[in-house]
Amino acid sequence: MKTTRTTLRCLAGGLTALVLHTTPALAQAPAQEVRMEEMMARMAEAAKLGPRHEALGAYIGNWDVEIAMVMPGSPGQKSKATATYAWAIDGRWLSVRINGELMGQTFESFSIMGYDNYAKNHVAVTVSSMDTAMTMARGLVVDPTHKVRSLYGTIDEYTTGEIHKPVKVLFRDVSADRHVMEIWDLGIGDAGAKVLEYTFTRRR
Question: In whole angstroms, how far apart are CA 59 and each of 55, 117, 148, 163?
Answer without folding.
Answer: 8, 20, 14, 33
